[in-house]
Amino acid sequence: MGNIMKKYDAIVFDFDGVLVESVDVKTKAFATLYREYGDRIVQQVVDYHLLHGGISRFEKFRYYQEVLLGKPLTKEEEIQLGDRFSQYVEDAVVSAPYVLGADDFLENHYQSIPLFVASGTPDEELKRIVSRRNMNHYFVSVHGSPAKKGAIIQDILKTHGFKPDRVLMVGDAIADYEGAIFADVKFVGRVMQYPEAEPFIVGTLVVPDLADLGAIIDGA
Prior knowledge:
The chain is of the alpha/beta class. The protein contains ten helices and six strands; from the N terminus they run αβαααααβαβαβαββα.
């Protein structure tokens, strides 16, 4: 713990797939929403979702409608899709298990180093989920979309006066990595199926879960 505090003044976590094993929940929700369009579209929807983790579901809806289905997405349709998606996922994310080691890491570090969340989940929904999981006390603040990851991290830096090289972002998607690059902070990637599903550039520090995150940070 001491070495982490010497290296970093704050840690920013993505939520789904980093703190909570909830990526599959959202994959199934996207598949359900587009099932009426057939198996080929469903597979394309799922593939795009998995390749573009960490971005807002509304950006994905727009891509699915305009690129895959070839029709514009109206505001009314966007709201309906968002509401249906939230109904599918919120309770499931609340009850999803922690990523291995995440709960221990939070419990062991939240009183000694400021922790934050930057997620692609809509802000109000994210805050409800964190509250319902009784996780609020771990974090200084929790941030969701529509703000982008890089902008969220920059706002955290500005609000709290942190230097970029003293802040760590932990994420599982290219949007998390790009957000860290944008804000010029350090990055560690969580990769479930390393090295088969390694989305980051060669040389990026990655972990299979959060069980050894503290030790890996200390040794980095």
